[in-house]
Amino acid sequence: xxxxxxxxxxxxxxxxxxxxxxxxxxNTDAGKEKISxxxxxxxxxxxxxxxxxxxxxxxxSGIPNTNGIRNDVVDALVEMGIPNxxxxxxxxxxxxxxxxxxxxxxxxxxxxNTHWGGVTEDNSFGTHEFMxxxxxxxxxxxxxxxxxxxxxxxxxxxxxxxxxDNISPMTDLRxxxxxxxxxxxxxxxxxxxxxxxxxxxxxxxxxxxxxRYSTYTKNYGDNRLYRIACGxxxxxYHWMETLMKDGNPGRSFQGISLHYYTVTHNxxxxxxxxxxxxxxxxxxxxxxxxxxxxxRKHINIMDRYDPQNRVGLLVDEWGSWHxxxxxxxxxxxxxxxxxxxxxxxxxxxxxxxxxxxRVKMANIAQTVNVLQAMILTKDDEMVKTPSYYVFKMYKxxxxxxxxxxxxxxxxxxxxxxxxxxxxxxxxxxxxxxIHLTISxxxxxxxxxxxxxxxxxxxxxxxxxxxxxxxxxNAYNDFGMEEEVPMxxxxxxxxxxxxxxxxxxxxxxxxxxxx
Length: 514
Ligand code: AHR
Known about the structure:
Blueprint: H1 2-21, E1 23-27, E2 41-43, E3 65-66, E4 69-70, H2 71-80, E5 84-87, E6 111-113, E7 119-121, H3 127-137, E8 140-145, H4 152-163, H5 169-176, E9 187-190, H6 203-215, E10 226-229, H7 237-246, E11 255-262, H8 278-305, E12 312-320, H9 339-354, E13 359-365, E14 375-378, E15 381-384, H10 386-394, E16 401-402, E17 405-408, E18 411-414, E19 417-420, E20 422-428, E21 434-440, E22 447-454, E23 461-467, E24 486-488, E25 492-495, E26 498-503, E27 507-513
Parallel strand pairs: 1-22, 2-5, 2-13, 5-8, 8-9, 9-10, 10-11, 11-12, 12-13
Antiparallel strand pairs: 1-17, 3-4, 6-7, 14-15, 16-20, 18-19, 20-21, 21-27, 22-26, 23-24, 23-27, 25-26
């Protein structure tokens, strides 16, 4: 009897210790920052099978399409919630001449896509097709101008073509190509990676060039351009400092970009998308968590030069970059997408939410068939990746009010190293509901979490969703039942404003509360 009592006390003690380690306090009455819906944005480049085959199949294709754009992909992205789409690159943007992509398709000139496989680009997908895609997606267009190899006049005329309603040579040309009204594009990138593929410039040189290009990208009518300066590569703090000091922030540019990819090993041997072990996984997650330090340090610099928080930080390329799938064109960057990638997505989205005061947009690379894609296509087939489900799950945070949270988490230990086991975000949506997303990064152990909804007396659990699988390298494939679906989740107990939830190992959960 005594022994039984001893064991049950030990059991209760272990239980208390375990649950005490993972505690989230959500300050439901303290939110003031809005999570911009544009944090959940996307990026599509003329690269591999992203545009061609991914979206664009042409009007005569046997694949069901509307005005040449495949219906299955559009339907899936609309269901997921796609607030914006950045185009046409990437490195491609700084060698793209937009006038090659307008007018009758059979008269458009071709070019070589020097960055991505050296293939011939026939320009059949251009400005009008992109704007039609955005219309179908109900997504805000983000157009990346060519500062690297184009001219100021060319960029200036593109803005006029898209946005002017006056009588002018550019609006006449647009009308002749079948579009009477201005589209009114707001988001405008002044070059891409101009420290690298966009011209190999120094920060000082780019700051001057950007100011010049910015001067001639005009506001037409009521439309106010949100100009995005090319920002740093990863931890190039000198680039950020120079642009904020010399780039005329708030006037020449309203936002500045940041690019950071999660590469498990190194750029020459990144590692397989599907064939990896726990040590690779631990490395991937550690590298992805570096985004926290990057955001904090870049934002510190921005705060010094822009204390009024007028300039947004736009992480307009991010995501995991693995080796291409065996047998595919190395220039096409086609990779599979596993539960590991889903966890990369949830962790980064949590970080963008955390820094919502400054982070005003983010664009994962690249929507269809390239890098950490939402969707993979093969002829007329389509697959929704695990990352797709994360975006679908997280759309509850779009335009929500960020609820500041305090998190106590156990570590996920591997080989004497440790990272936090839990990543989380909390927001209140416009209809008053509270949404909590939590990821358990530990692939070996479930976590018990208690959560206090401070500021509320009683909470009601409305619904939950979960993304998980038996293995970290599980993925969804053509013609197969999904290995990583999103399912409903109810393993939650609520008492007053206290919640307890058990997250299975390697899982992502969303809880909706009222
Ligand atoms: O997303 C692929 C490439 O990565 C983009 O073209 C470029 O901007 C970055 O280096």
